Amino acid sequence: MDTMFHLQTLLIIAAGAIATYLTRVGGYIFITRMKRIPPRAEAALNAVPAAVLTTLVAPAAVTGGLDVSLTMAVAFFAGLRVSLLPMLGIGWIVVMTLRHLIG
Amino acid sequence: MTPATKDEVRDAFRRGIAVAIAAAPFAVLFGAVAVDNGLTIAETALMSATLYAGASQLVGVELFNHNVAPWLVVLSIFAVNFRHVLYSAAIAAHIRHLTFWQKATSLFLLTDPQFAETERRADAGIRVSYVWSMVLGLSVYVPWLCLTIVGGFLGNLIGDPKAIGIDVLLPIYFMGLVLGFRSRANWLPVVLASGAGSILAMHFVGSPWHVSLGALAGVVVAALMPLDGKESEVAIGKTAEGEA
Question: Keyword Transmembrane helix on this protein (chain A) (predicted)?
Fold first, then answer.
């Protein structure tokens, strides 16, 4: 490790931190000034987490190779029944087993 | 301290530590992945200390590795954290009695579990005090920061993440979060639209645009779906389930 901080990384972290803080106070500031959010805007907002997070899953599951695709499929069904941590454990065991068997 | 305050501190600390234990693997995971993706341990710690939002930290670090334009990394962090807007709107009535600086500091610690616990306490008819909020928040924040640094040191020892299978942990973690939202209105059409949109965008436009284009597809579908007239109850009552 040559330096502790890189300028560009530092700026990204600072901007990300400010953006995050704005989301944490934004709703409070907004709602204490507004009476009602339009229903369609609220429906769109409500979909934001699932919509964003899905984009981090789907391409990885499809393009990551057979071992990753199979693991994601098993983890999906596990996720319907168990919580996050056991789901991670099951996924990890499956991918390690597959890699051991396939090579 | 009055006995009442002591009870508040004890209750908040107990709940906070439970959350910290559940989040511990993710803190270590974040630290390891961050260092693996080229961040220094100091940068990794700074990110945990100032952003303090697990999923978005993992997203941000993931994008660092793809040589994505800086503004897009920030926008992605913002997009993943956008749910906090709903949280702070939902708890507005419970924290209105706090002073300006009390609100400004306690909202910095607003996370998925912090939101859930605040809602639970207010539902039980107990006033949400500043002491309670800060003890709860800090007993998650401090372990999160420390374990991030531990993970960073472990990340330096870990060579190829594929060899020990941690490369699949992130996608599985995000899939778990997505599944945690499945009781929400329009969940399936949103997930299908975002999934298809992101795969198509990855193929035809390329990374990192698959994130914004795929998310846009899901959000547009949600806005165009027929309204069931219960949006506000869904938005406020169900957000906390299953989120790390």
Answer: yes
